[in-house]
TrEMBL record:
<dbReference type="InterPro" id="IPR029052">
    <property type="entry name" value="Metallo-depent_PP-like"/>
</dbReference>
<dbReference type="Pfam" id="PF00149">
    <property type="entry name" value="Metallophos"/>
</dbReference>
<dbReference type="GO" id="GO:0016787">
    <property type="term" value="F:hydrolase activity"/>
</dbReference>
<protein>
    <recommendedName>
        <fullName>Calcineurin-like phosphoesterase domain-containing protein</fullName>
    </recommendedName>
</protein>
<feature type="domain" description="Calcineurin-like phosphoesterase">
    <location>
        <begin position="141"/>
        <end position="396"/>
    </location>
</feature>
<dbReference type="InterPro" id="IPR004843">
    <property type="entry name" value="Calcineurin-like_PHP"/>
</dbReference>
<dbReference type="InterPro" id="IPR051918">
    <property type="entry name" value="STPP_CPPED1"/>
</dbReference>
Length: 471
């Protein structure tokens, strides 16, 4: 019986990409013949190519070489042949190949068993996948979804969410990361309706879109079906330690106590651009997941004191699990000039900068006490890194600018983005990060967009532009 795997290519960035595959060793392929293969031309509209290749039975390999051609310049990627057999022998492996001969080109190579094909086909008979996705080295895309409230039956947030997964994956410029900033689950949520990981997050990762998930106030409330979310995040962080080595994953700055260890984490995205004078410039995007709210101590929910209609299960709504300590310790790793140079900080958590009501002191400080706001502000001002925060909590189907307030009159100057939420309609918020050259200087341009996943097209035309800023 023959064996085999899918060989896939995706053009995620360029007008046109020519792909040439040369197969080695006839005896390794089915019937002792080279596979039937038409070298694809990947354009903006026809940007995917997926073919199932068969190898001969027995202890054989499926060696092949790949040549990419863009704008008349070609390069063979890989110092040795790729082996299709590697795709059938284990779980997912990641690597990046940066082109030396093609300007601004990087290829994400993924192989292993368990991945869905780009076309959505499920693997059968232990088949694997060997995938090449072609990006720009100077541009990355991060997506944010917040307040999914999985388990909200009236809004269709139960059961298999593969339609939403496919809507995100069909984007030509698909995100390289998806960040979920809390309130993953709705309340009350029955045990059988609470598995957002099985029904949404895992299928996304099988499409090669890693998910950085964090918990919000709804995910902390005990007694309403969400009490194990912290454990789920902690468990996933153990997996991320091995799977995200490529992205500089770390959670080692967590305070070593049983209460705070293992929840918060950080990872890195690197961009590089060759300038007009031939010089190579880089910028590093340090991403930090702080989960529910930046704070040091776990504080009872003052907004619920004396409310007889609400039981004690919601008293943990403001718990922070020393996320400020994690932030401070993470930034201390960047104290040396070489680590800080050309670094931009992106922060992700749940509670928004302006909270719920600045007119009502209890409501304003319910989720984020003044002392914790002040400490957060001090940490970021002291580190002097360009930074921006992304959060949810308040339910709107648009993006909003927010400034961190200490009270209704006092602002701090820290700016952030409250994202469109996914409780009623599933919204994708997009952060496009691109290095651009202006007057001989390399700058990072950050463009934010948002739109319903149900409206996404291959080219992402339905995403509404929200804001552009430079670092």
């Amino acid at each position: 019986m023959s064996q085999g795997a899918y060989l896939e290519f995706a053009n995620r960035a360029f007008d046109k990409v020519d792909v040439t595959v040369d197969f080695c060793n006839k005896k390794d392929w089915e019937h002792g013949k080279y596979p039937q293969w038409e070298n694809p031309v990947l354009t903006e509209k026809c940007y995917l190519s997926s073919t199932r290749l068969e190898m001969a039975s027995g202890k054989v390999h499926g060696y092949f070489r790949v040549t990419i051609t863009i704008d008349g310049k070609s390069e063979n990627f890989g110092s040795k042949e790729f082996d299709l057999n590697d795709a059938t022998n284990g779980t997912r492996n990641w690597s990046y190949y940066y082109s030396g001969g093609i300007n601004d080109c990087v290829i994400l190579v993924t192989y292993g068993r368990g991945l869905d094909t780009l076309g959505g086909e499920k693997m059968k008979n232990k088949r694997g996948c060997y995938r090449f996705e072609i990006f720009r080295a100077s541009k990355r895309r991060i997506a944010v979804m917040t307040d999914y409230h999985y388990g909200c039956k009236e809004n269709g947030n139960t059961g298999n969410q593969i339609n939403v997964v496919n809507e995100i994956n069909r984007l030509r410029d698909r995100p390289e990361f998806l960040v979920m900033t809390g309130d993953l689950l709705h309340n009350p949520t029955k045990l059988e309706d609470r598995d957002i990981w099985k029904n949404f997050i895992d299928p996304l990762e099988l499409k090669n879109i890693p998910v950085a998930d964090g918990f919000g106030n709804h995910d902390l409330w005990t007694g309403v079906g969400a009490e194990n979310v912290k454990k789920d995040i902690k468990k996933r962080n153990k997996t991320r330690k091995s799977d995200w080595k490529l992205f500089g994953y770390s959670d080692s700055e967590n305070k070593k106590t049983c209460d705070n260890d293992g929840y918060h984490y950080r990872w890195r995205i690197d961009l590089q651009k060759r300038m007009a004078n031939g010089e190579m410039k880089q910028k590093h995007i340090e991403c930090i997941m702080l989960n529910n709210v930046p704070g040091e101590t776990n504080v009872d929910d003052i907004g619920k004191k004396g409310d007889k209609k609400v039981d004690d299960s919601q008293k943990e709504g403001t718990w922070s699990f020393d996320s400020l300590g994690f932030l401070e310790r993470s930034l201390s790793k960047l104290d040396c000039p070489s680590a800080r140079k050309d670094t931009i900080l992106l922060l992700f958590f749940h509670i928004n900068y302006e909270s719920e009501s600045m007119e009502n002191t209890n409501a304003f400080y319910r989720w984020w006490p003044r002392e914790a706001r002040g400490k957060y502000n001090d940490i970021l001002k002291e580190c002097k890194l360009p930074n921006c925060a992304f959060f949810g909590h308040i339910h709107n189907e648009k993006m909003f600018h927010e400034e961190l307030h200490m009270d209704s009159c006092e602002t701090t100057g820290l700016k952030g983005y409250r994202c469109a939420v996914s409780k009623t309609n599933r919204y994708l918020n997009v952060i496009d990060l691109e290095l651009v050259e202006e007057n001989g200087e390399c700058k990072l341009r950050m463009t934010t967009k948002y739109g319903k996943t149900a409206d996404l097209t291959v080219k992402g035309d339905s995403l509404d532009d929200f804001d552009t800023k430079y670092f």
